[in-house]
Amino acid sequence: MSTPIEGAEVSGDQISMFLVNVLEGRWDYAYPAYKNNSVFHKIKINESRGTALHMAVNDGKAELVNALVSAIIEHEGREGLKSDSALKSTNERGDTPLHLAASRGFIGMCKCIIGEHGERKDLIKAMNNKGETPLFRAVLTCQTQTFVYLRHVSKDIEVPLTNSDGDTILHRAIWGELLDLALIITHCYPVLMDTRNKEGVTPLKVLAHKPSAFKSGLNLSLWKQILYYFTISLESEALQEQNLIKLKVRSVRSTVWFVFRVLSLLGLGVSTKELEDIKKTRQKHRWSRQLLNVFMRTPYESYMGISGGQPFLKFDEDEDKNVAQTFITQQQLESTQQIT
C-alpha cells in the first residue's frame, strides 16, 4: 500500500499525464496520483472546469467524489477545514466543488464535502465571483431539498444571504418564479421579507412586477380557460374532501377533465403537454396567493422595506421538518418542528 506524500514535487510530464487522464476520464490512472500526492489536489485541469474534484462533481460521479474528498481529508487531517484546503479551490466562476454540488442538487456530494457531522460546514459561507454562496446557488437552480439541507447544517454559523448585486435569496427566488421555494424562504427567514436590494426594491415589489404569477395575468384561449378553472390538484383535495357536496364537485370536475383528455387524444382539444402546463400554472398561482398572504401580514414593512445590508443565516430556533414539501399549506407555514 502506497504512503501519501505531502506535496512532493512532481515533474511536468507527471502533471501533463494527470491532466490528460482526468480530461479523458481515465480515473483508474489519475486517482492513484491524486491519492498519493496532495499536489494534484489543487491542480486546475483548465480554468473553466477547475480541479479534478470540480470535474468529478460536475460529471455526477458520486463514488469518485467520495474517494477524492477522502484523499484530501487524509492529507489535510480531520480536525477541521484548513485555510488553504483543496476543498476551497475554485474554477473561473469562483465556484468551489460545493457550489457545483449544491447547484446540481447532489445532496449526497454536499454531505460528503461538508462532512457527516458538519466538520467543514464553513464551506457554505464561501462566495463565488458574484457573491453567491452554495446556499444561494441552490436557490438559483431551484434545488429545494439541497437548500433545506444546507440551511439546516449551517444553522449555527453566519452565511451571507445576499449576492454582489444586493439581491437576497428571496429576491432571486421570486424573480425566477420559484414561488414554492420563496414560500419556504419567508417561513425560514422572515427578516428577508422587508429587506431591500441596492435599487431599494423589496421582494414584495418584485412579486408585484410578475403579472404571470397571478391568475389576472393569464392570456388563455377559451378551452384553456375552462381547463384552468376545472383543473384539480389531487394533493390539495386529499386534504379538503370531507363532505358529500365537495365530493360531487370533485366528480364534476373530474368528468370535465376526462372529457378534455379524450378530446385531446382525438385532436380536438389541447395536447397532454398543454394540460400539464395548465396544471403547473394553476399551482404557481396557488403559491403566489399564499406568498402574497404572507407579505400582507406586515404590508407596510413588506412593501417599503428596511435599509439594505447583509442578511445572514443564523438559527437559534426550531425548524420545520416538512419545509421542503411541494405543496405548502397554511398550517405547515405556521407550525415548526425540529429537523432531525
Automatic annotation (TrEMBL):
Q: Which domain of life is it from?
A: Eukaryota
Supply the SMART domains for this chain.
Answer: ANK (SM00248)
Subcellular localization: Cell membrane
Looking up Pfam families in the UniProt record yields: Ank_2
Provide GO CC annotations from the record.
plasma membrane
The membrane topology noted for this protein in its Swiss-Prot or TrEMBL record is: Peripheral membrane protein
Q: Output this protein's name.
A: Uncharacterized protein LOC113854263
Q: Which organism is it from?
A: Abrus precatorius
Gene name, Swiss-Prot/TrEMBL = LOC113854263
